[in-house]
Design a protein that fits this description.
The protein is globular. Helix content is about 20%, strand content about 25%. Strands 1-9-10-8-2-7-3-4-5-6 form a ten-stranded mixed beta sheet. It is of the alpha/beta class and about 220 residues long. The chain has six helices and ten strands, in the order E-H-E-H-E-H-E-H-E-E-H-E-H-E-E-E.
Amino acid sequence: MRRLFDHPTDHVTVREAYDVERPRPDNRPWLGICMVSSIDGSTVVDSNSRGLSSKADQEVLLTLRDLADVLIVGAATVRIEGYGPPRKRGQRVGVVSRKGDVDATSALFTSGAGFLILPDDAPPTSVDSVRAGLGDVDLAAALSQLDADFVQAEGGALLNGALAAADLIDELNLTLSPMLASGNGPRVTSGPTQLARRMRLSHVLEDDDFLFTRYVRAT
């Protein structure tokens, strides 16, 4: 993998590029998003992200997961991508849902790794839960309850959009796949709130025509 920016070099490992300081904001963990998109903006091919990915992209995702304390992901993405227990021992996966309508018998939950992130007024559930907000999850309040320094969010677009609207995104790790996807696939973020929030480019890597960008909160 080559680093194009900053400090260009012909070889850098994924661990070297992504194992960086992530200072914890006041009252909540550092929140990063990891996504892949086509060069024309879609985050799916045939309804999931696997058709856009590569071996290097998977290494980036797995490295970031290894660095994170907790993963959070939307309930629909858990179903579509087939989430199971994480490979990092002791790591937990928070599934964000309005109603908690998930398969509590799946390996993610029976392993003890999975938990729900719900509004306070969501129906009762036997699954371990963090609750905040009415009607919709109050993501800032939910994050403040997590025992973590670095939380990684992995989509989908509505969760990412809600995190952006709440001004909770400290880091966006976006892989640009050299694919044209067309269609009407989702973007990296989606939601009713239109934003214009500037981020700062931290690095750009390249491997096999894939670009690996890292943006951080502008100060």
